Amino acid sequence: MSLAEELKSAVTPRAALLVVGVLALQLLFIASYVGALHNPKPKDVPFGVVAPQQVSAQLVGRLERLPGGPLDPRTVADEAEARKQIMNRDIDGALVVNPAGTTDTLLVASGGGTVLSSALDALFTRVEAADRRTLRTVDIAPASEQDFDGLSAFYLVVGWCVGGYICAAILAISAGSRPANRERAIIRLGVLALYSVLGGLGGAVIVGPILGALPGSVAALWGLGTLVVFAVGAATLALQCLFGIVGIGLAILLIVIAGNPSAGGAFPLPMLPPFWSAIGPALPPGAGTWAARSIAYFKGNDVTGSLLVLSAWAVVGSAITLVTSSLKRTPVAEPLADEVN
Fold first, then answer.
1. Listed residue (197, 182, 188, 198) closest to 168, CA to CA
2. Cα separations (Å) of 189 from 37, 169, 256?
3. How many angstroms separate the Cα of 299 from the Cα of each of 84, 126, 198, 216, 227?
4. Among 277, 322, 231, 268, residue whose Cα is nearest residue 112
5. Using one digit for the tens of pLDDT, what is the confidence trace for 80-135?
6. CA distance 327 to 242
């Protein structure tokens, strides 16, 4: 057998295409993570200003003109309203000006990301020093002492996402990426649902009662985890139904390569470049991370949008899986089966 024949026998055309696909995923992984995380800077951070009426407009204008546009400032009526808006996750911080003294108060919420709260503290320390004023920082939603850099919610959601697409991939690899009929598709979705309930519960218990990494309701985190796992798994099943085994790679592209760096985990959304901050909330890792932090540190406020995003992934993924499995088609051999044979 010639070298060319040996090469063709050892590496089939299908295998060669898969290797090229893996190389593309590898390069996209590097480009996505480094592109999103290599130079974090606050940009258009929603920020409140509490100050006497005669100076508030001037201060807001000055903050709008800061180099690099780190803030999106707006006037807030009083400190109580600023605290409420921070807890509702409408703004990420607020400056409360004290007209009777030289010390102002910066309100932050490190539970939403310690990197962002630290960046705001550093920024306003410089701003106040330029006016010969001092700054007192108050963290109204502090991250747990066991939650280093506020990353536990992100890692929890990443674990749930990994479980979702690996479970779906195993179901495909073991018995064919495209269910033979609707009944088998329903069974796969049922198995995924059961796995999601167990995976959601396990993650909530580990980060809560066992490790003490996240405060908040274990039941609420359990429900969120169930939805995250099922959403990712259903999306993976749908991609496999549409594209065969290549669908697993597409799931990795969406969830790992695009979703993780844009999730606001390592750096909150206002510190990410525009592309990543725009797509993050629409992908399961970003929606899950936002909701997990809201449950843990913000009394469950502002989770509706994230839950709708996750529900959409779950419903659309399930619908595509059921519809494609119901369509009549000419039976084709599964790619992995061909490779094995």
1. 188
2. 35, 12, 22
3. 11, 32, 24, 8, 19
4. 268
5. 999 999 999 999 999 999 999 999 999 999 999 999 999 999 999 999 999 999 99
6. 12
